[in-house]
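lol ok so funny story. i was supposed to be doing the assay writeup but got distracted and ended up predicting the structure for this chain instead. priorities right. anyway since i did it might as well share w the group, maybe its usefull for someone
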Amino acid sequence: MANFKALAKDTAIYGLSSIVGRFLNYLLTPLYTYKIAAASGGYGVITNIYAYTALLLVILTFGMETTFFYFANREDKDPKMVFSTILRMVGTIALAFIALVVAFIGPISTALGYADHPSYVWVMATVVAIDAFQCVLFAYLRYQKKALKFAALKLLNIGLSIALNLWVFLIMSRTQEVGVGYVFSINLFCSAFLTFFLLKELKGITYGFDLGLMKEMVSYSWPILILGIAGILNQTADKMLFPYIYEGEDASVQLGIYGAAVKIAMIMAMITQAFRYAYEPFVFGNAKDKDSKETYAKGMKYFLIFTLLAFLSVMAYIDILKYIVNADYWDGLKVIPIVMAAEIMMGVYFNLSFWYKLIGKTIWGAVFSGIGCAVLLLVNFIFVPKYGFIACAWGGFAGYAVAMVVSYIVGQKKNPIAYPVKDIAMYVILTAVLYVGISLANANMSMVPAIMVNTLLLLVFVAYVVRKDFPLSQLPVVGKYFRN
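and the output, tada:
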């Protein structure tokens, strides 16, 4: 119980910073979509560039976040030496990456379709290099249980970014033309500025470097890298490939509409990311506990309960949430339930991944993610040319579904965990039934009556959760009023 309380506390802090941060970041979505018309394709450029940066960030970090927690918690390793070795390695790779991009900026920007705007490429390449280096520093904060500093710095970065974007697009735009290039430049400034607040952690680079340890860590992490690449491709491959495989002439326009709609669905990513930040160090730190498998099984159920509730909440109030983006982007709203369902499966897949991470068999992660990525790419190549971005959403759904199912089947054979499958199935079925009711209300009623009906349906879900897994009598403080 004490372990769960610690997990709940860290999840609350990480979750607050993640959810509040993402919510504040949502301010940029209406800003961009209201200031950058869908027909201009500008938001499509932003969506495309950030898809590449997400992939590159995974490559440059080389799976070293998970690797750090694994080795830092081993009794035969010095956590400071682990941290310093990883920091030096990732830093060297990041510097080499920037040098290569600058040296070959012409061919690279041309290949990506930005020959007229090479600055988009080198600016964001620098951002990725800085962020990759900072990932190690932030992992060290998580290891030291400095959740408050972690959260404060993440929020500082987002707050500064929002302030600069508001200044550029609301004030500067009155006197001069501003374009998407400002978005990338602001990102660079904020990432660089954040480094000054990590100087204390940066001193860890002086702890030393162990070549033998590095080789051991690389051996552990390379399958995680493959897993990470496949995983991030499941999220970004459609946005990178879309301009090349979509048959219409308005690829940037359609990609922008899709990217804006996906932003609304990203509430699910907030929850899964917050859970991951707290859960990963928690799992590795308690791996030796005799009841650890029971803990993982409960963690899976609680994760699904809250993500399913989030799914229903977004769909219940979609008539309000859609105003996050301008009306000329609303054609993309149809992908939101598909993308959120895919995010839930990604979260389940992440929870299932610990069996092979804990026993050092990370190659399995590469296999599962590779299979899922192959499914996603197949769906995209076959259906995107004709059906457009709706096929992108279904591709992600199919890829995560396959990876999740295969991981569960193999995991139950290699390292079985008694997940409460029946309880989980009941929650999924209830969610599906309530989703149908919400969809019917949204389709056949005006906004106010639909929201009232949807709120009642949400309360049905909450009532089931309270009755089944969170009885009011067990709540702190107020629980005494519900006890007999």
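The two ends are 23 Å apart (CA to CA). The CA atoms of residues 237 and 447 lie 35 Å apart.
back to the writeup now i swear
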